[in-house]
Amino acid sequence: MSEFLWQNGGRVERLLLDLPTDRSRSGFWLGDGLFETMLVSDGEIFARERHLRRLAESMSKLGMSSEMSDLDAGLDAATSWIDGECGQIRLTYLSSTDFIISARKHVIPSAELKLVHYPYPKNERSVLAGVKTLSYGENGAALRYAKAEGADDVIFTNTKGFITESALANLLLWDGETWWTPSLESGCLAGLTRELLVEFFNVRERDFMIDDLRGMVALALTSALRDVQPVSHFQGHSYSGLSEVDRLRTQFQDWRAKNPHP
Fold it and tell me: Cα separations (Å) of 163 from 7, 50, 158, 238?
């Protein structure tokens, strides 16, 4: 089998989801849930406890109960199925209290990306701001917009005009001396790779306007499944500092290999 699937305490071949009667626990049917996507490397889930802590915090923020029996057994089984290769595990938790673990092999991407500005702002005051929610319709629409514009992803701005994130990752900006990332107050996701780069690699936080991007030497995207991926162009503007992205990427990957449980 090319994928691993686990639901509510046991391995399954296909999902079984009931029709909801309680709209406050509508789960799959209204996209009401949360997810975590975790990198598996050298037989371990990287930053496993940080992922589970963020999930618990998001559950609390959205008023969801956490009823996941045998969660550790499911994560361990998925990790074992990946069999020592590089892989990804996705843990999906629905407000119906269904939880699903899926796994597949993974190749960390390194291709240079092209980004465009998405014209519709994100609401930094939304209850969903900064939460890895299953309600990804806005991000899906943004990715289709990027594709129509000949790009790979977008950069969102919030209602105040500050940049936040891409549709799939956090942003990193190199000004020639310092790596920066938008502040959490912008409404961006509190990404775990972003968190580790701030904590251990001197990446600093501040707010940026969209025009600030043209003054940067390098731009990159970061997430659990991509580490640090270079951006070559934004709105037709090219970046000359791709070697700085490669340097940070290599440093982070070397550090990650030595620190599986940061």
Answer: 37, 25, 6, 18
Alpha helices (H) in the chain, listed in sequence order: 48-62, 71-82, 137-148, 192-200, 242-258
The whole-angstrom separation of Cα 255 and Cα 203 is 15
* 42-62 mean pLDDT: 96
Long-range contacts of range 137-142, CB-CB < 8 Å, 24 or more positions apart? 137/31, 139/167, 139/168, 140/167, 142/118, 142/167
Instruction: Assess contact for 172 and 219: CB atoms under 8 A.
Output: yes
**In terms of Cα–Cα distance, which of 262, 256, 261 is closest to 86?**
256
User: Does the pLDDT value for residue 27 go beyond 90?
Assistant: no
Decide if pLDDT at 45 tops 90: yes
Taking the CA of residue 255 as centre, how many other CA atoms within 13 Å lie in the half-sphere pointing to its CB? 16
DSSP structural state of residue 162: B
Judge whether 44 and 57 are in contact, CB under 8 Å: no
Strands (E), the chain: 4-7, 10-11, 33-41, 44-45, 87-94, 99-105, 113-117, 153-155, 170-174, 179-181, 204-205, 218-223, 227-234, 237-238
Token reading at 100: 């699903």
Radius of gyration of the chain (CA): 19
pLDDT for 107 equals: 97
* pLDDT-above-90 percentage for the chain: 85
